[in-house]
Amino acid sequence: MKKIKSIKIGGHKIFVKYKKKANIINLGENWQQYNQINLNIEQEPSQLEVTLLHEIIHNVLSNSGYKYDKNNDTKVHSEKTVETIAQGLYQVLKDNKIIFNGKLE
Fold first, then answer.
1. If you average pLDDT over residues 54-71, what whole number do you get?
2. pTM of the prediction?
């Protein structure tokens, strides 16, 4: 995957930062209030691609009014929901050669 420096989501320019594991708690973080997505660079390329999709989905859902609650997995915007969508979407895009080549540049 070519390193993306920024992406437009819902009309907002979101900056994508790549960080070492020591500087980031999870595989990725969506800091919507700062228009920033942080990704743990110490992942396999395919996992990094899924993590980017995962954080994009968090951002889209938040923009749509779905609030995130990390402690309640029954809400629409939960980690389980976001990860399910990210994994499924990644598989469709990858299998149909729509995006992602699996190589970091």
1. 79
2. 0.77
